[in-house]
Amino acid sequence: MINRLLLRDVSVIRRRQYWGLVFVLPAVLFFVVFFLYPLIIGFGLSLTDFTLLRPPVWVGLDNYINLLSDRLFLKSINVTLGYVFGSTVPTWILSLLAALLFYQKFPGREGLKLLFFSPLLPSVAVVSVIWVVLLHPSGILTHFIGPLVGKSSITWLHDLTLSPIVIVVARIWSVIPFYMLIWLAGLTAIPQELRDAALVDGANRRQSFLRVELPLLRPTAVFVMAVSTIAAFQGFTLQFIIAPNQGGPVDVNTTLGVVIWKYGFQFYRMGDAAAVSVVLFAFIMIVTGIQLKLGSSDRYSLQ
Fold this sequence. Notes:
The protein is mainly α. The chain has one domain: MetI-like (MetI-like fold, Orthogonal Bundle), CATH 1.10.3720. Helix content is about 75%, strand content about 0%. Strands 1-2 form a two-stranded antiparallel ribbon. A hairpin with a 7-residue loop joins strand 1 and strand 2 (about 55-60). Helix 3 (about 70-105) crosses helix 7, helix 3 runs antiparallel to helix 10 (about 220-235) and helix 8 (about 190-200) runs antiparallel to helix 9 (about 205-215). The N and C termini lie far apart (about 50 Å).
């Protein structure tokens, strides 16, 4: 009798495992076809001299060695790191502040939330075109800011200092609503009883946030930091559309994503483009791994 029950339990477990594999299989196939296979092919191409005009020729690590002395590639690393830092850290802070604002109850909150969310509705290409119009030397932004600095015309996109800044601002403006919703979901998941208990114990609103809510938001913070950093490292559309000459002026907006496009489709150096893409992938994996490691620390746990 016991043996029959055990055999039946084993049969049920095997059946569940079988159907579990069946349901997971489409996602696995999608991952293999659209991620793993291109990743392997891309790494293989990075080891070849390939110009789209003739078959790939094996060159080993020559493409990677050549990148060490490539001026455009080396400059794009600095540009990318500056863009990532400038567009992520303010996004984390501003989106969290926006979430704290919309977590409060006040008249017209839902309508204001919908208006605040509107920059996320159009595609990045549409957002880029809108910013090109706004950043015209005699455009809307110049109309409001020009009198404050005593100028009737401001070359936003051709100035070596202003051009990277306005692209970072455009990036922050377009993604804050998305991360605000993630922070808001994290705040909503915190039991209200914990806040009430902190207030009863004598904590004010600021202390309650720092000692109760913020530690409990750590998983949300890790997710926001990781996703926003990955997206920033892949920056391409804003730099390609807004910046003059696809990354100008003088390549101050040429990120690694723009370099991949230039090497692959402007210079027809597909091997070099694949090598840069592998380097970009390595950057993303290293930085994301560091963030996840720091986020898994118990340093900020509730005490």
